[in-house]
Amino acid sequence: MSEISVIGNAAANAASQTAPTTAPVEVVAPEATTGTVASSNVEAAATTDRVEFSEHAQLLEKVHQLPEVRQDKIDAIKDAIANNTYLTGDKLDVAVNRMVDELMD
What we know:
mainly alpha
């Protein structure tokens, strides 16, 4: 391996002029390795890199992609409260029924 001490074209020329310090190793295709040893006495192994994202990480990514605030909903509720149209009889009935259900449990 060559030393890299100069930046620029001189380093490229110096690297191409040096002789390799190790003998070349024969590479065997993964199909050819069925437990046998390659001719250079090195067993070849097929390796691949993989990345797997957990379900938790995928859910966190979805949460991060959500808008910070649903401003349109907030504005609609503020307007309804200001116009005294937010609380209707139906909404009050639902709220009372939920409270009764919670108290019964």
